[in-house]
Amino acid sequence: MATTQGIKLMTIRDLRIRRARVIVRVDFNEPISGRGHLSDDFRIRAAMPTLMKLLADGNQLVIISHLGRPNGKKRRTMSMKPIARRLSALLKRRVVFIRDPFSVRSRRFLATFEEGRVCMLENIRFWQEEEKNNLQFAEKLSRFGKYYVNDAFGASHRAHASIAGISRLLPSCAGLLLAREVRALDRMCHHQRHPFFVILAGGKASGKIELAKKFIHEADGVLLGGAIANSVLMSRGFEIGRSVAYHEMKNMKKMFNVSSQKLYTPLDVIVSPRIAQGAGSAIKLYSGVAAHDYIVDVGPATRRFFIKMLKNARTILWNGPLGVVEIPEFSAGTLAIINALKRSKAYKVTGGGDTVALLQKHRLVGVFDHVSTGGGAMLEYLAGKKMPGIEALRK
Ligand code: 3PG
């Protein structure tokens, strides 16, 4: 049993599902190129314990996921087929890909499905009823199994038919990944050991403002980088050049206390005339950015300062890289701090697509105690918002 926001959450271990047909909702929204090449499988691997356990208990699995945002239309580039192929390689067993789950042929096939078999349905967002949380659609989906397991933490902030609607129609519970996510994030929200530091950065500022506001009160320090740092510097009256920031909200002061003593913005920054590999860069003080500059990373003094601050931390929550890490030249600040965290004894949690990609590329996933598969979902959960996919399991 996992506990989320003070609520007990039943998992597959509690429900003891055996020799049954089980619908498993996962979030295999992985990056795929137009040619069907899968460049990451972090989320697929993260769901493996649930799938393996259900298979070991003699169940048949009907796996459902979304991929991208096809807006209710069938798009070849967003097919689940490459994902089914990768899943098959990881499970070391055949995964039958079901292109049209609602055809008579597919329904007949699923009715004769045997123990230990696995199938994966086509991208569930190809049907517009999914995002509308249409009840009839949820009912149609529920006929594919006797039980429903939600292991899609990354999509549980969406009130969609295969996430929220369906779990009201079948005996339902959480998968092991979902349970692990809520355990780790709950520790950040309710059981932090101090000193507790939060790092908020990345290319988008909007979702992080609420978290900055919250953690200024709960943490011992909130360290900022990326778009949110630029936005705070801008609202304090400093030039940020052409850097990414939350421009819609010029007056951030109205949203939260940007002068809080617990809020740490970069002391120095790396600037570049272009966001491109080989564009060249310079170190500048936060107050010395020119109108034509892009802030692309934190500077060396900031790195040293942040590393020193985090040295004695007992809990660290990190969301979003400190620089434009897609470009290797601008990832030095983020990497220097992650490498310094290798020696830290703090309980460390991170997440978000860009951070996960960077950690994987540099084989640094193991530095953290938990790497969340959620992007937006992680931010919403930490902000204390109710998640429809989790709420639906609280029956
Ligand atoms: C994600 O990648 O954050 C999840 O899969 C949710 O995707 P969405 O933002 O398109 O709902």
From TrEMBL:
Keyword Protein biosynthesis: no
GO molecular function, one term: phosphoglycerate kinase activity
Principal location listed in the UniProt entry: cytoplasm
Location in the cell: Cytoplasm
Residues noted as binding substrate in the record, renumbered to the chain: D27, F28, N29, R43, H66, L67, G68, R69, R125, R158
GO cellular component: cytosol
Associated pathway: Carbohydrate degradation; glycolysis; pyruvate from D-glyceraldehyde 3-phosphate: step 2/5
Any one of the GO BP annotations: gluconeogenesis
Uppermost EC category: transferase
Binding site for ATP: K208, E326, G352, G353, D354, T355
Keywords (A to Z) from UniProt: ATP-binding, Cytoplasm, Glycolysis, Kinase, Nucleotide-binding, Transferase
E.C. code: 2.7.2.3
InterPro entries noted in UniProt: Phosphoglycerate_kinase, Phosphoglycerate_kinase_N, Phosphoglycerate_kinase_sf
Residues given in the record as (2R)-3-phosphoglycerate binding sites: R43, R125, R158
Catalytic activity field: (2R)-3-phosphoglycerate + ATP = (2R)-3-phospho-glyceroyl phosphate + ADP
Pfam families: PGK
Keyword flag Nucleotide-binding: yes
Similarity-based family: Belongs to the phosphoglycerate kinase family.
Subunit structure: Monomer.
Protein name: Phosphoglycerate kinase
Organism: Candidatus Sungbacteria bacterium RIFCSPHIGHO2_02_FULL_51_29
